[in-house]
Design brief:
Strand content: 35-45%
Number of strands: 6
Order of helices and strands: HEEEEEE
Distance between the termini: 44 Å
CATH topology: SH3 type barrels
Low-confidence stretches: none
Structural class: mainly beta
Mean pLDDT: 91
Largest sheet: 6 strands, antiparallel
CATH architecture: Roll
Radius of gyration: 16 Å
Strand order of the largest sheet: 4-3-2-1-5-6
Length: about 120
């Protein structure tokens, strides 16, 4: 039984997943289904956490929405709903989870940019 499940999970894996690091600013192109219509919505924000769990790997992206409200979304790395992930910028970070950004607003929430 586990062999069948394992082979199914291996089929779902993306061939070359994006190389993400904590602190990266990314555009996530996510496919959304509304009734019969299907569209692609772009979510731009900072990667504040990565979870490496094989086929269940995920990453958390945080952005500041309208009126200064923080919005976080968790995306599955190998999900067929995630069309592509564009890395726009890299930042210098010293932690594996950037949860401290939740308490910061404005210029204090900035991370130092790094060229790679």
């Amino acid at each position: 039984m586990s062999y069948i499940l394992q082979s199914f999970e291996e089929q779902q894996l993306k061939e070359n997943p994006p190389q993400l690091h904590v602190g990266d600013v990314v555009n996530v192109h996510n496919r959304i289904v509304e009734g019969k219509n299907e569209r692609v919505q772009v979510f731009q924000g900072t990667v504040i956490g990565l979870t490496n769990a094989g086929p269940a790997s995920s990453f958390t992206v945080r952005k500041i929405g309208a009126h200064g409200v923080g919005v976080e979304r968790i995306f599955r790395l190998h999900s067929p709903r995630v069309e592509r992930v564009e890395v726009l910028r890299h930042s210098k970070v010293r932690r594996s989870k950037l949860y401290f950004l939740r308490d910061r607003v404005g210029k204090k929430a900035r991370l130092k940019q790094v060229r790679r």
